[in-house]
Amino acid sequence: MFPARKTLLSALAAVAVVLPGAASADEVAVAVAANFTAPMQKIAQLFEQDTGHKAVLSFGATGKFYAQIANGAPFGVLLAADDTTPEKIGKEGLGDASTRFTYAIGQLVLWSKQAGYVDEGGKVLEKGDWRHIAIANPKLAPYGQAAMETLDKLKLTDKVKGRVVQGENIGQTYQFAASGNAELGFVALSQVLEDGKLREGSAWVVPASMHEPIRQDAIVLKPAQNNPAAAALMQYLRGDKARAVIKSYGYSF
Question: NCBIfam families under this entry (predicted)?
Fold first, then answer.
């Protein structure tokens, strides 16, 4: 009896070591750029399934997240819409500069909810049969800055500026275009793709040469420098599963 019981207890102890339990799981609060909403929701689910750790997500404008982080917001990881904000955070001691890396390179697209409305080369911008174009605030949102750089390259800035509807971030900008309040919108390709295909409407993928690269960097913030979930998430974002999701939404690396 006793030897058998001892063997059983030893086996159970071995299983407890192998299987991740609730005691070994941690949480990390993640501030996520609005353009990365859909892919990060999928990645967070996979991350929890594969590691047992949980990523608690908040979505918004990178500029606003920076202000919150500087004022002590307890985020553990920032997935920014640019590379300059994480660099600044590292230099200011608000995060661990050694953890910073580019998790995705964003793609700007001119999009309309109407099928067949946006043509190749964005020539629709030169036509006068539209009233509004949605653009994210270029002072807060890298996609908005890229949109303005594109308009400058096309020499159309002065022509369209009186018809711009400005979104606080790329999420709100997409809503303006999706609701029809703006016939056109410069949005993130990730917002209009599903399973690698355009979900609806019509679009022109803006060539990368039209604007500065939209490098999106991640960084571990000061409150999570010793958080196992934060370290695990940064590693997971570099892995094959996460990268497959990221690529399916039109990002590159």
Answer: modA
Q: Which of 134, 148, 167 is nearest to 211 (CA)?
A: 148
**DSSP classification of residue 115:** T
What are the backbone angles phi and psi of residue 107, rounded to the nearest 5°?
Answer: -125, 125
Mean pLDDT of 83-112: 98
pLDDT tens, 207-233? Answer: 999 999 999 999 999 999 999 999 999
Are 75 and 69 contacting, i.e. CB atoms less than 8 angstroms apart?
A: yes
* 78 vs 96: CA distance, rounded Å: 11
Annotated binding site for molybdate: 62, 170
Q: Is 17 helix (H, G, I), strand (E, B) or coil?
A: helix
Domain 108-205, what fold?
D-Maltodextrin-Binding Protein; domain 2 (3.40.190)
Give SS3 for 246. Answer: helix
pTM of the model: 0.83
**pLDDT tens, 130-143?**
999 999 999 888 89
Residues annotated as binding site? 62, 170
- The amino acid occupying position 247 is K
